[in-house]
């Protein structure tokens, strides 16, 4: 794979990789993106040569390919330098925007230290190659466990879903309340929640992250970015990004966990294609709640827990941002739900809406 020279740059071929990252930051003038403290600490992650990453993936061989997101392809590799299996994301070479996302991700994760955020092991910045090296998450993304489930894989049970929701909320709480400066994630969705053994969730992909408002400011004005179906309507309409924008996205993910439905599903009837639009009228009557739950749960869920979880989701996806809860309140509620372990041997099994023939079968029978 040929490495092209970095366009419009006076870098020397022998420049160090740390210098390359610094030049990226300076070139982008990221004062509005990240603080000086973060920029100065953006080299805490290890640096790898492009040659090392080519060797780790056997020249990005097809059977090492894990998936593809908005910013590049992800490969599984084994780095001899650290004797570790890793995930390597190769960013698309699409100019300054791609470099911006690369830098923001490196500096955000270099300072982050939380069990619910994916660990950035290192990066490569050579020529116009930009690669990120993460800890490998063996269970893949939450999306892999909710949709198109193969027949040999068991669907997530109620306890796993609550555990994942609570952990994802704690990761978001860390970004909002414990990082300095606080960070708005801006890209919370099922495909960005990775799972380690035991369904331990970790937020990933921070290329769209933004430093949150400070002082008397209530929002950050920015170009609308994110994923359709997860993006808060107030942010989509005004470009005013707030911490409550993330809360809306979390509410959508939580609804996906409860219902097994996608945020946007164009295979359904028009009135059911948008998950939030479908759910809102259902929230008004508890008699609808059993029709909202994922049929793959086969009736094995606590009815009180279902009511409580849907109440949380409904608050998170309120149209008015000031009506959405703070992340700390969400964490408190979900920690409580996750701590109440459901045992189908003890608790009554609810009458399921439909019993699929196997986990990989079509989830929806049009009866919702």
Automatic annotation (TrEMBL):
The keyword rRNA-binding does not apply. Keywords: ATP-binding, Cell membrane, Kinase, Lipoprotein, Membrane, Nucleotide-binding, Serine/threonine-protein kinase, Transferase. Pfam families: Pkinase. ATP binds at residue 89. It is found in: Cell membrane. Residues 350-368 have a biased composition (Basic and acidic residues). Residues 345-368 are annotated as: Disordered. One of its GO terms (biological process) is pollen tube guidance. One of its GO terms (cellular component) is pollen tube tip. Residues 60-337 form the Protein kinase domain. It is a lipid-anchor. One of its GO terms (molecular function) is protein serine/threonine kinase activity. Belongs to the protein kinase superfamily. Ser/Thr protein kinase family. This is Protein kinase domain-containing protein.
